[in-house]
Design goal:
The protein is built from 30 helices and 20 strands. The chain is α/β, with parallel strands linked by helices. A six-stranded mixed beta sheet has the order 12-9-13-17-18-19, sandwiched between helices.
Length: about 850
């Protein structure tokens, strides 16, 4: 409807869409105050409208950023929230300069902004919080009779106290006391919050007896008004008893907390009974945070008490059950991702307390995969509008229909006639039709959107000769999950920071072709022993890496003086759900090879890297050699333009790129493959790949650094291999560092030779790299820099190269002659008859 109205009214008011989206967001936020969903989408659409406006309505924009910051706080996205606040502040200052506003109203807005600034500061930014307090105190006396300013001043004191409470709790006490004093309203809900924080600060600073006085008052007043924060008040009392080393009292109060959260089900924390039945009625994120905190306090408070560790384990399990139920509808933000790590880390640290019927390793693996996928996918969608994935007109039509539907549903409140119900039904049917069209046009989007990883499904597909090693950073530790058909195990490997330091030093040697090989092999052996506390029992090994380990080719690690390459066929998974996802059709009937030419050249072909845009003879020879082995279409030199590729890409079963790529470490979304000409029009960016629908069984990215994006968790989806997977390609061969031109060309040729012989992709790639290693033994090019960077992601199964692509001219002539003789024979018989 916004688009329809804009056609009629935008000439008179260019802000019409901005206002419509903003007010639709406000309506949705009001109807569903505890949910981050459609309201947030409308606010984001309103923000997108700003790009099209010459004279935007600053009053609406300021309110818009205020709403967006509220939602960011709701999901605890501090960085995004602070950006919204700064935009809000900047626009408000500009508005104040252009308009004459009542001084008291000006101060109300300023105190609101000061409050927001403190709200989005991180805990270690307490010095910044103190400066904001000083600024707020400058004007307070003059406006202290204003109730709104009074509340904001108290809130600023309270939030400043929160910056100190974990590291310097004694320094937070005066700020909470000031908040209570300024508010001066014992019957207020805010008074209870400030009293709660004062009690918490007293507990943390070792003043438990004094804290219990505050807490008892808090529980009494909270019970009188049936305050929904009562479980937190009770938890604080339990915490005071934990600090006093009173286990029985702490357990008694903790049981009260669980009963208050879920009065319907009988939960036994001691015997671990009824844990999976736990279904609290309040907000999931709040419950998960509370359960995790209670578990952590029991674990840290009574480390030598087996009963206390069992209680902690039960509380962590309750948190995981609650998280698992809520993850399908909720967005996974950095804040909730940290909560996930706290829960899983807690379970693993108390796993000795797991009882029969409790969570199993399989449950933790599924929980991990679903959470990480949701986190990656949430971030991905935040960076891409729906127009990236679907036809723009279709998206606009659906948006318009949903707005009409909302208005009609609101109209029912005053007009419940059959006509309105009929209109609603028709619109809902049309929306369903559009959804079907979207699903048919881009099944990959829904595959990612609705993905639900199941260990049962993985186990049913997992082959006996395959083993998966899944590495994951959880809090401060790195864990290894070993998965095979009938075996599961989790092992704590090392502190994450020390492991990252060791891997980073090794990668420096690996990425330098002139580094000392004996030193590299020594570090490789040490790292291998650390990463493989148990040796794989199958020849085929699949690695699911995390963090800096995503940059490590595991086949370069050494065991008993040999590279793992000599003993294992190693491939990689960016998600366990990608294990052997290829459909029944493995036939490659046609292939496309792309090798652009560039304006510059380089002399030493062995040293040439596929990074900067100079001409690569190795890349051209690569497609010539492979093209003779596997028939297909070749786009070479000037023919290898981006437009030529885009026209035909979806017609081929195999895509091979021998070319340059451009990296962007700051924003991997800007990574691109460089076609002929190397200008902006001949670069293929990730955004474009996400919008493509390809039928290829495999894409080979014989370019530079195509395999990885940022090291940080959550950035894996911005790598080129992920983008091809999204576009429908189940297998991707990619490179982890600037690919040496000539050696990469040789490895690729032998890779295809082995594929044609019927080997699986992982076996073929291992054999081709091992062949290079044998041929270059004793030369400078045996260094792993020249061969270890080429890796395989995704489906590893073999390919069948169809006969139709291999028909020679002789075969065509023979076939044609036989056909002609057959026709002549039939014609002769017809005449005789």
């Amino acid at each position: 409807m916004a688009e329809a109205l804009s056609k009629d009214y935008r000439y008179f008011d260019e802000n019409i869409n901005l206002r419509i989206y903003y007010f639709l967001g406000v309506v949705h936020k009001g109807l569903h105050p505890g949910q981050v969903g459609k309201g947030y989408e409308y606010f984001q659409k309103a923000e997108e409208e700003l790009n099209h406006l010459v004279h935007p309505d600053t009053s609406i924009i300021a309110q818009l950023y205020g709403m967006l910051s509220d939602i960011a706080w709701q999901v605890r996205d501090l960085d995004r929230g602070m950006k919204y606040v700064q935009k809000y502040k900047h626009l408000n200052e500009a508005f104040e300069k252009r308009n004459s506003i009542d001084p008291e109203q000006v101060m109300q807005t300023r105190y609101h902004l000061l409050y927001k600034e403190v709200q989005f500061l991180r805990e270690d930014q307490y010095e910044d919080a103190i400066e904001i307090v000083k600024e707020a105190e400058l004007y307070y006396e003059e406006f202290s009779e204003n109730d709104e300013i009074k509340l904001r001043m108290a809130s600023i004191y309270n939030l400043t106290g929160e910056k100190f409470i974990r590291t310097l709790p004694a320094r937070s006490i005066p700020y909470y006391q000031k908040a209570i004093s300024v508010l001066n309203n014992p019957s207020s809900s805010y008074h209870l919050q400030y009293l709660f924080n004062l009690g918490k600060a007293s507990v943390y600073s070792g003043q438990e007896e004094e804290a219990l006085l505050y807490i008892n008052e808090l529980i009494e007043k909270g019970s009188e008004v049936d305050d929904n924060r009562l479980p937190f008040f009770l938890f604080l009392k339990s915490l005071a008893y934990i600090r006093l080393n009173d286990f029985d009292s702490a357990l008694s109060i903790t049981k009260e907390v669980i009963k208050d959260l879920d009065p319907k089900n009988e939960i036994d924390l001691v015997l671990h009974k009824g844990l999976s039945d736990f279904q609290p009625s309040s907000a999931p994120i709040v419950n998960i945070n509370l359960l995790s905190r209670m578990a952590m306090e029991f674990y840290n408070g009574f480390k030598n008490n087996e009963s206390a560790l069992s209680i902690a384990n039960a509380l962590y399990q309750l948190g995981i059950h609650e998280y698992s139920r809520s993850i399908k509808a909720a967005k996974v933000t950095p804040y909730t991702k940290t909560m996930y790590e706290q829960l899983v880390g807690g379970i693993l640290s108390t796993k000795a307390q797991l009882k029969e019927g409790d969570l199993k390793i399989e449950d933790l693996i599924a929980f991990s995969e679903n959470t990480n996928h949701k986190y990656l996918w949430t971030n991905h969608k935040l960076n891409h509008s729906q127009e990236t994935f679907f036809d723009k007109k279709l998206v606009a039509r659906e948006s318009s229909l949903r707005e009409e539907l909302l208005e009609l549903k609101q109209k029912i409140l005053s007009d419940s006639s059959q006509l309105v119900h009929s209109d609603i039904f028709e619109i809902e049917m049309e929306i369903e039709k559009i959804e079907r069209q979207k699903r048919n046009s881009n099944s990959s989007y829904y595959l990612f959107e609705e993905a639900e990883f199941s260990m049962d499904d993985l186990t049913s597909r997992l082959k006996h000769q395959d083993q998966i090693f899944k590495y994951e950073n959880i809090l401060d530790s790195t864990y290894l999950f070993i998965i095979s058909k009938d075996y599961r195990k989790v092992i704590s490997l090392a502190a994450k920071d020390s492991l990252e330091l060791q891997v980073a030093g090794f990668l420096q040697l690996l990425n330098d072709p002139h580094s000392d090989l004996p030193d590299l092999k020594s570090q490789s052996t040490d790292l291998c022993n650390l990463l493989f506390p148990e040796w794989p029992v199958t020849k085929k090994l699949l690695i699911k890496a995390d963090g800096i380990l995503q940059f490590l080719p595991f086949e370069v690690l050494m065991k008993n003086g040999d590279y793992l390459l000599a003993h294992y066929d190693i491939s990689y998974l960016s998600a366990l759900a990608f294990y052997e996802t290829m459909s029944n059709s493995k036939e490659v009937a046609n292939a496309l090879f792309v090798a652009p030419s560039y304006s510059k050249s380089v002399s030493n072909e062995q040293e040439a890297l596929r990074q900067k845009a100079y001409d690569l003879s190795g890349a051209k020879n690569e497609v010539d050699r492979i093209g003779k082995l596997i028939k297909g279409r070749v786009l070479k030199g000037k023919e290898a333009s981006k437009s030529s590729f885009m026209e035909v890409a979806d017609n081929f079963d195999l895509l091979h790129f021998s070319m340059h790529s451009n990296l962007n470490d700051y924003d991997p979304e800007l990574i691109n493959l460089v076609f002929h000409g190397a200008d902006e029009d001949n670069r293929l960016y990730l955004n474009e790949l996400y919008g493509m629908r390809l039928q290829a069984k495999m894409a080979v990215l014989s370019a530079c650094n195509t395999g990885v994006g940022k090291v940080e968790l959550g950035e894996g989806l911005v790598s080129l291999d992920r983008a091809f997977a999204f576009a429908g390609v189940p297998s991707v061969v990619a490179t982890l560092w600037p690919a040496p031109d000539q050696s990469t060309s040789d490895i690729m040729f032998h890779f295809y030779q082995k594929l044609k012989e019927g080997n699986s992709k992982s076996a073929a790639l291992s054999a081709s790299k091992f062949h290079h290693l044998q041929m270059q033994a004793g030369t400078a090019f045996e260094h792993p820099f020249y061969w270890a960077g080429v890796v395989l992601y995704g489906d590893t199964s073999s390919l069948i190269f169809g006969e139709k692509q291999n028909l020679s001219l002789t075969s065509v002539f023979i076939f044609g002659s036989l056909l002609l003789l057959g026709l002549l024979f039939l014609f002769r018989n017809k005449i005789l008859s």
